[in-house]
Specification:
This protein has 261 residues and is α+β, with helices and mostly antiparallel strands. The protein is 31% helix and 14% strand. The protein has a 3-stranded antiparallel beta sheet with strand order 8-7-9, with helices on one face. It has a two-stranded antiparallel sheet with strand order 1-2. The chain has a two-stranded antiparallel sheet with strand order 3-4. The chain is elongated and about 130 Å long. It starts with 21 loop residues before the first helix and ends with a strand.
Length: 261
């Protein structure tokens, strides 16, 4: 039976409940608290961290200040101290060389002037040079090591330098170098596999060299060359697999010649 309202109830197993509902339980707790004798709180002594005043209080917890006003002032003081420490760590004080104004700047920004107006008044050292082509005077930094005043003069200087060089030995050497001639050893020669109209398969390197050494296999009118390449070689090159990938319409046969693979 509930000791508050007198209503009969069945408590849960292994439960020592004396009330039938939560409302009755709250009423029971209230009555018990009224019946208990009042115990006075312990009075403690603190020193205010802001004004230094000694004060007493019986409130629980730790008290650092004597009043809410001192608490606000103490919090503001801590924020200002933290901001000053941050500024001292990340900022530098410099003097503008133009106007003499003292200003602050962040470390690592390498600022020299207090504003853009003072920065625009600085003296920029200029190095005057004379163009070797047209003789015009121009300004450029020493690190640039420029000899001409414009792009046109630069092209003229390169052309004049190229004409002054003796390239005879280089040209003669290129004539006898196998990797620069129309030979199977050419540095851009590729592997070819072609099947003739009569079914004979030919495997070789360098299509132009093959055409020039097997003129009897092709019509004479197609052996004429354009830009050092026979006409028949240009047409047969369309059979190569690496050319077929780039063509919208694949070439399967040229004058009866097909790819052997």
């Amino acid at each position: 039976m509930c000791i508050i309202c007198g209503q009969e109830f069945t408590p849960a197993p292994k439960s020592a409940a004396r009330t039938c509902s939560r409302d009755c339980w709250i009423e029971l707790v209230r009555r018990n608290s009224l019946n208990q004798p009042h115990r006075p709180r312990k009075v403690r002594v603190f020193t205010c961290a802001f004004c230094g005043k000694v004060f007493e209080t019986d409130a629980p917890g730790t008290h650092r200040t004597c009043s809410p006003e001192c608490a606000r002032k103490q919090h503001s003081k801590k924020i200002k101290e933290a901001a000053a420490a941050h500024r001292a760590e990340h900022y530098l004080t410099k003097t503008c060389p133009i106007c003499g104004k003292v200003f602050e700047t962040q470390r690592g920004r390498n600022r020299t002037y207090c504003s853009r107006a003072c920065g625009s008044k600085r003296e920029i050292p200029k190095n005057s040079e004379i163009c070797v082509i047209c003789g015009r005077k121009f300004f450029a930094p020493k690190s640039a090591n420029r000899k001409t005043c414009s792009q046109q003069c630069t092209k003229a200087l390169l052309t004049r330098s190229a004409k002054q060089q003796d390239l005879t030995a280089m040209r003669e050497g290129a004539k006898h170098c196998p990797i620069l001639q129309s030979t199977p050893q050419h540095f851009r020669a590729k592997e070819w596999a072609l099947r003739a109209p009569d079914g004979t398969e030919y495997r070789f390197k360098n299509l132009n060299h093959f055409v020039r050494t097997h003129k009897e296999l092709f019509p004479p009118e197609l052996l004429r060359e354009h830009h050092c390449t026979p006409f028949i070689a240009t047409r047969l090159s369309a059979l190569a697999p690496w050319r077929q990938e780039k063509r919208a319409k694949q070439a399967l046969s040229v004058l009866g010649w097909t790819w052997a693979d």
